[in-house]
Amino acid sequence: AVGVGAGAEGLVNAARRVAAVWSDSDHVFLKVDFRNAFNCVFRSAVLAEVADKFPSLLGHASLAYGSPANLVYDEWFISSSRGVQQGDPLGPLFFSLALATLWRKVRAVVAPLPFVGWFLDDGIIGGRPHLVDEALQTLQRDSPEIASHSTCRNVKLSAATSPKASACSPPSASSHRSMIGPSWAHRVATR
Q1: What separation in angstroms does the CA of 93 have from each of 38, 82, 117, 119, 120?
Q2: What sign has the CA pseudo-torsion 128, 113, 24, 160?
Q3: Where are the strands (E) in the chain, listed by range?
Q4: What is the pLDDT of residues 86-132, one digit of tens each?
Q5: Three-class SS of residue 139?
């Protein structure tokens, strides 16, 4: 969502409501945050999505992102050729358009996921553990196509069965093992 006040909080609250419904199931939530995604998104991905979804904005997007910008630091010039520019009022929209291709890939690979929500580079994925694992693998495999050096960070797992379950507070490591098995839990816990 772009231009939505408290968007991330709304996403977390929606996940909490769904967790209450899932309280007696084996569903889990995975909270994902991409490291440095705004600065690393490929401008070619931005331009391609703007051309496809909002062709009337392509002129602005091409002017802002069609060629590298020269950043000045003291006597040095630094060429900036990735990321959306700070201060660009359309930057969050353009960034979201580029990342939406990744979100669509997750949905295509793991269509039966009952809960998938994103706000810019923060996402919450909920469902059966094996589907959530597949979604995470898709994100990690395909995110370099959208943004260089951008990886999932702050990956947190939460059981919907926990009385205090929320999309932001993962269970203990022992809960991970009992919920989804040791190998998957270890991969998630060490990311």
Answers
A1: 11, 16, 16, 11, 9
A2: positive
A3: 28-34, 69-73, 76-80, 115-119, 122-127, 152-159
A4: 788 999 899 889 888 888 888 887 777 888 888 888 888 888 888 88
A5: helix
